[in-house]
């Protein structure tokens, strides 16, 4: 094993060619995950509520089903290479990745949110109505918190998947963590084992800490 | 993926989008956007010290930007993305060991050639003596290259395994997933020079083809094409082209390769 191949290139693994070149590496991966995760959360909540309440009708259902049924990789590829050709729209690579991850994960989350809302017992509504709360208040203070607690495991699943899916950014040339690792591997040629073992460990650490935070938050929320 | 690219390309042909003159656009923006390899030393790779792209193609791109008096902005590419990057107007030029072919000319334009190679193979010593030996082997190629196309056409019975780039294919060869890999001689020479176990392998004594590499341009940009051609010829005249060549393939480099092609030579 030749670990200097990791330590000698630590800065490149962390930030890529930045600041002379585009941002890359682990920092880029984190930003892609945060951006995609934030967008997925907003879309998932809004979409789930709409699906549950029956707003948006068939259009929303088709949209969610479409997004759930196509590979993220292809969505990125289409946005990046086809939008400029067909509509003259130029979307930068980083945004393509964030939007594609946000849309697809958002669609998955929307179904989870819908299921969570359905899972809250009917009696909760009736009890809240009996104590004089309005529909919006019941949703905000009584039903949604319980629904979110129910779907926490699948929510966490989706975020972990999203973190790992950031590595698909290579298709549009965004220098995420896996991409810069590949660049180092191509130059050094013979240390593939060390390099890919290292990035595997880093992804594991990222996702494990995300899970740990999720579990911890879940325990705190359960105590309240 | 191939289907997607074909779809992208056919859409590009149908839409017939008309852009303003590219050369003026580049000057106005003050930036020349060039797609170069990031994983193919010595044509395009990431320099470990500066963490920036470097290589022969990068030097040529730099010379073009300098002549224009604009900033160079490099976009990393793999072989398969070179044409979509041009047709989707994500870059102005492609300088990525881009072999000139009639098939590709249907979608993109090429400058005069600035590099020439032949398609060769790397295999364990003694495995490949004549072209017919290829028939008995599993061969690794780079996805979307002319080498892949030629191998599939000329040796349809040979199992071909396509990899994202040459170093990955070489790893597969080393691990025994394939028994030979094919690329152009210049790249194979550099690849072998960097390998710690190079004594076990050799480059085939024969070449299947003679190929020429040019700068890839969007179609219908005559002024841009004229500028690129004139600049390349000027690089040859002033000796800069030789300087760039010697920096990556000269006698003092790890993989010396005599220069047998000058810009402007008949092809």
Keywords:
heterodimer; A: 224 residues; mainly alpha; 0% strand; B: 267 residues; D-Maltodextrin-Binding Protein, domain 2; 6-stranded mixed beta sheet; 5-stranded mixed beta sheet; 10 helices
Label the CATH architecture of the largest domain in chain B: 3-Layer(aba) Sandwich
The first-level CATH class of chain A is given as Mainly Alpha
How many H/I helices of chain B? 10
Report the structural category of chain A: mainly alpha
Cα-based radius of gyration of chain A, to the nearest Å: 21 Å
- State the shape of chain A: globular
Judging by the overall fold, what is the CATH architecture of chain A? Orthogonal Bundle
The mean pLDDT of chain B is 91
> Which stretches of chain A are poorly predicted, pLDDT < 50 over at least 5 residues?
none
List the secondary-structure elements of chain A in sequence, H or E: HHHHHHHHHH
Strand element count of chain A: 0
What form of chain B results from the Cα inertia axes? globular
Would you summarize the structure shown here?
The complex is a heterodimer of chains A (224) and B (267). Chain A has helices at residues 4-7, 10-15, 25-53, 57-69, 72-87, 93-119, 122-130, 135-165, 177-188, 192-223. Chain A has 224 residues and is mainly alpha-helical.
What does this structure look like?
The complex is a heterodimer of chains A (224) and B (267). With 224 residues, chain A is mainly α. Chain A is built from ten helices and no strands. Chain A has helices at residues 4-7, 10-15, 25-53, 57-69, 72-87, 93-119, 122-130, 135-165, 177-188, 192-223. In chain A, helix 3 (25-53) packs parallel to helix 6 and helix 7 (122-130) runs antiparallel to helix 8 (135-165). The N and C termini of chain A lie far apart (49 Å). By secondary structure, chain B is of the alpha/beta class. Chain B has two domains: 2-6 and 19-116 and 211-249, Periplasmic binding protein-like II (D-Maltodextrin-Binding Protein, domain 2, 3-Layer(aba) Sandwich), CATH 3.40.190; 119-203, 3-Layer(aba) Sandwich (D-Maltodextrin-Binding Protein, domain 2), CATH 3.40.190.10. Chain B is built from ten helices and 14 strands. Chain B has helices at 2-15, 22-29, 56-68, 82-87, 102-105, 146-154, 166-175, 185-194, 222-237, 240-249; strands at 31-37, 39-40, 44-46, 53-54, 71-77, 93-99, 109-110, 115-117, 119-124, 139-142, 160-163, 180-184, 201-203, 211-217. In chain B, strands 1, 5, 6, 7, 8 and 14 form a six-stranded mixed beta sheet that branches. A five-stranded mixed beta sheet of chain B has the order 11-10-12-9-13, sandwiched between helices. A three-stranded antiparallel beta sheet of chain B has the order 2-3-4, covered by helices on one side. The chains are: A mainly alpha (224), B alpha/beta (267).
């Amino acid at each position: 094993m030749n670990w200097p191949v990791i330590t000698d290139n630590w800065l490149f693994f962390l930030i890529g060619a930045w600041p002379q070149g585009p941002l890359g590496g682990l920092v880029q991966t984190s930003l892609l995950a945060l951006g995609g995760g934030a967008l997925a959360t907003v879309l998932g909540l809004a979409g789930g509520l709409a699906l549950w309440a029956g707003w948006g009708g068939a259009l929303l259902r088709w949209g969610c089903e479409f997004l759930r049924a196509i590979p993220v990789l292809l969505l990125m590829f289409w946005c990046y290479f086809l939008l400029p050709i067909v509509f003259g729209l130029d979307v930068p690579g980083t945004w393509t990745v964030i939007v594609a991850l946000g849309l697809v994960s958002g669609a998955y989350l929307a179904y989870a949110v819908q299921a969570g809302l359905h899972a809250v017992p009917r009696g909760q509504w009736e009890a809240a109505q009996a104590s004089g709360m309005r529909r919006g208040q019941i949703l905000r203070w009584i039903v949604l918190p319980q629904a979110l607690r129910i779907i926490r495991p699948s929510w966490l699943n989706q975020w972990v998947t999203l973190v790992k899916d950031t590595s698909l950014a290579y298709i549009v040339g965004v220098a995420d963590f896996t991409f810069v690792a590949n660049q180092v591997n191509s130059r050094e040629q013979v240390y593939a084992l060390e390099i890919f073992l290292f990035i595997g460990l880093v992804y594991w650490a990222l996702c494990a800490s995300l899970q740990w935070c999720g579990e911890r938050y879940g325990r705190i929320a359960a105590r309240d | 993926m191939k289907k997607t690219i074909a779809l992208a390309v056919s859409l590009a042909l149908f839409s017939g989008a008309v852009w303003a003159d590219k050369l003026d656009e580049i000057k106005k923006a003050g930036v020349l956007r060039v797609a170069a390899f990031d994983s193919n030393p010595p044509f395009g790779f990431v320099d470990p010290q500066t963490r920036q792209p470097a290589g022969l193609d990068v030097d040529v791109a730099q010379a073009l930007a300098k002549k224009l008096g604009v900033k160079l902005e490099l976009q990393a590419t793999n072989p398969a993305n070179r044409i979509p990057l041009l047709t989707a107007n994500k870059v102005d030029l492609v300088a990525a060991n881009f072999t000139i072919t009639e098939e590709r000319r249907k979608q993109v334009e090429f400058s005069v050639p600035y590099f020439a190679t032949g398609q060769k193979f790397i295999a364990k010593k003694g495995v490949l003596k004549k072209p017919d030996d290829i028939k008995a082997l599993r061969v690794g190629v780079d996805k979307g290259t002319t080498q892949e196309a030629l191998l599939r056409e000329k040796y349809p019975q040979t199992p071909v395994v396509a990899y994202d780039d040459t170093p990955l294919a070489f790893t597969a060869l080393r691990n025994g997933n394939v028994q030979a890999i094919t690329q152009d001689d210049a790249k194979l020479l550099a690849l072998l020079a960097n390998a710690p176990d190079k004594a076990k392998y050799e480059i085939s004594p024969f070449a299947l083809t003679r190929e020429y590499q040019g700068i890839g341009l969007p179609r219908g940009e005559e002024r841009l094409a004229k500028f690129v051609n004139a600049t390349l010829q000027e690089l040859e005249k002033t000796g800069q082209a030789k300087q760039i060549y010697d920096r990556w393939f000269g006698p003092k480099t790890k993989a010396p390769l005599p220069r047998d092609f000058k810009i402007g030579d008949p092809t």
